[in-house]
User: Which sequence fits this backbone?
């Protein structure tokens, strides 16, 4: 193996957080993207939306302060910031689908170099399907970012020429934050924005099997 | 005098028929009208089509309804969860049909029903297998899928406070699908923590106007509620 | 002329009011239909909706108590009953178009025997068109009633075989309350429900030029 | 810190361009953002497309904008009124184009824009001349007309109270089109009677969440307001 160090999940979350400007309206998907909230700067006002009907989501409540009526899309107890508010599902998805969110951060099984996203189903024949708000988030925000390990546990690239898993949305991901680097996606394919130290473009092309602009 | 309040959940659900389409509010357990569902189980209606975001959690509410084999079909966005064992078993046994709908399309289709629209071109799902076989159209350079409204015979929802005219307010994120489902069902039944005097709800802050609600039942406060 | 007495506008309003049951959700159109409110029984709760965003509309305010932010669809000052509420235009028209209103009462230029309605335009070439909520009300309520003089000032019937004025809605009017009688409309044509005293079916058929079931 | 409040209506409308599509809230004069319109007249943008329920009343607000010949086209449901003399004159002179839209379609098309829909099949107008040439479809035995969303560059609305994040509440029937237009415009500018501290608006009763509002300007209370 080469002499490079993968980013930890915490480092990835921190890296994504760094790119979220003050005043942005942001939806953080279930799982890894949720951790981005831990690294948003306390001195900037950034608006977190949760699709089950709140804007201005705050951190988890103190032990014993949980309210079963105040949860996030992952069904975990949360809090509401001063200035936040509640609304029903139609208004919530209007925010998401009407182009009102600036940024949405999602996990992924696969992302194509052109921005196709696969993150809701592995297509396994015996699996019970579930999609939730993934398809709405993927296509609705002004920018959809994906946050994922670049390789599966068995070493296959999750950034691919074309997705083989069932699609969540077409040409919807603009940027991938991975443990090995950051990529911009588009009609021209993937472009390397940054790499972890010690990793070469050549090595990255070998790992992904893709031709990467940089 | 118009008084939509009823004394019991049992009375409220007594005329729900076998084969009815029943919307059930809630996102997970927040906003899930547990007492109404318990009454529906007791009532015994079978072969129900259920519209909910999920397909039951744990042992209560919608999960219990499935466990009691009252559900023929579920229209939802996110059935599979760590605690959806009763749905999982019924689905794998072929006892329950599943119509999987992206959550935003679910909300928009319910909303379309309440608004009297015939169909909507929605951006979500285009190019995916959940839009397979559906009509699509390119409008102003974007691709859309044609989706139809979801109507229901009955909506069972949970609100915070209600009055005898059926006006409702909700509590925090337990609001979720309640206001939409109330608009999309022929008969909307709301369990509330408290029935208040007419006029006690500020007319500026009523979330669901009484025209969308046919029956209101007080089920008491949970301890935790402010 | 025959020995019958036309109903006054007040009598027509009173007649319509008699058919509105307790608990009904009702929209009264601008103009003559607005007067129906004056004859609704005080001991029954009937819910008046106004499309500009209120349900539970009360009577006109006392002199000096008018609030420019509290008006009806005719832009006249009104009041809100205890238990009434406000909402935005999308929710208001959801009530009207989604089949939630029980009864809507409208004026008309013409109504066809099958229930087509013409009440928004006389088609005069130099007129500035205006439609407001007429088309929404016509097709949205469970029952659409029309309230009108049966004849124009020049003696032509406004209940017609087919409308010649521009249509507001197709097959939408179920009942006409006129100064000469009440008619049910449908695919079979018009049926006389009641007549003013002294008026014969024959005379009514002569006045309207229609074959009227009864 | 995010602060969407501005000191003046003039500053709020300063970047509205010639040819812009501008939604203006209000039903008649209730909810009409008079001060913003005055600022827009002063600002001088021309060839505007205006979306409003009406086409101006009397001498102020939208009527004044028309009088000053800033309007190229009006999309509305009810232009002709007893006091719409400035519109009437401009229309008859061929200076203003009119797109007449049934009021419910107007609301639904604005709502569709805010919701990201591509088009909707609406029940209103079928078989009338306002649907002439439009696509229609029979769905479940009812007839519908295909209508497209109405988007805007700017929405000028009037609310009762707002905060620095853009959260808004309205007053009585002055609410009308405000919440919809706020969702359908790229830039929503709200004049409010009062700007309140963050947190002073109850999170359960915010009608327009701040995400839909870009600029808020306090114009003071009118005397009559409670």
Assistant:
């Amino acid at each position: 193996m080469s002499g490079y160090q993968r980013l930890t999940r915490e480092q990835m979350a921190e890296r994504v957080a760094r790119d979220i400007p003050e005043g942005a309206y942001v939806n953080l998907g279930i799982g890894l993207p949720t951790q981005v909230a831990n690294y948003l700067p306390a001195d900037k006002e950034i608006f977190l939306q949760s699709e089950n009907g709140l804007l201005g989501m705050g951190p988890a409540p103190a032990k014993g302060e949980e309210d079963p009526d105040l949860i996030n899309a992952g069904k975990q107890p949360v809090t509401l910031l001063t200035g936040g508010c509640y609304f029903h599902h139609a208004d919530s998805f209007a925010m998401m689908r009407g182009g009102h969110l600036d940024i949405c951060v999602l996990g992924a099984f696969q992302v194509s170099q052109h921005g196709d996203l696969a993150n809701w189903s592995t297509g396994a024949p015996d699996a019970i399907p579930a999609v939730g708000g993934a398809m709405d988030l993927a296509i609705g925000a002004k920018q959809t970012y994906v946050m994922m390990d670049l390789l599966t546990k068995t070493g296959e690239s999750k950034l691919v020429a074309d997705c083989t898993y069932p699609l969540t949305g077409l040409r919807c991901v603009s940027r991938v934050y991975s443990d090995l680097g950051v990529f911009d996606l588009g009609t021209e394919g993937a472009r390397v924005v940054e790499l972890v130290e010690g990793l070469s473009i050549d090595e990255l092309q070998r790992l992904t099997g893709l031709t990467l602009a940089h | 005098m118009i008084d939509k309040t009823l004394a019991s959940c049992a009375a409220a659900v007594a005329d729900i028929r076998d084969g009815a389409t029943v919307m059930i509010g809630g996102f997970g357990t927040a906003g899930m009208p547990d007492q109404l569902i318990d009454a529906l189980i007791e009532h015994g209606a079978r072969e129900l089509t259920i519209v909910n975001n999920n397909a039951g959690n744990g042992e209560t509410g919608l999960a219990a309804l499935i466990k009691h084999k009252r559900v023929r079909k579920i229209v939802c966005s996110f059935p599979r969860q760590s605690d959806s064992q009763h749905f999982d078993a019924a689905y794998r046994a072929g006892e329950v049909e599943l119509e999987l709908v992206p959550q935003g399309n679910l909300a928009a289709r319910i909303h379309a029903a309440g608004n009297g629209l015939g169909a909507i071109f929605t951006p979500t799902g285009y190019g995916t297998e959940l839009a397979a076989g559906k009509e699509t159209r390119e409008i102003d350079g974007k691709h859309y899928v044609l989706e139809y409204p979801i109507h229901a015979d009955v909506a069972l929802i949970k609100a915070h406070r209600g009055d005898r005219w059926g006006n409702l307010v909700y509590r925090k994120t337990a609001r979720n699908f309640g206001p939409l489902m109330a608009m999309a069902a022929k008969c909307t039944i709301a369990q509330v923590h408290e029935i208040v005097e007419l006029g006690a709800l500020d007319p500026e802050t009523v979330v669901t106007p009484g025209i969308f609600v046919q029956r209101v039942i007080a089920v008491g406060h949970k301890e935790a509620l402010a």
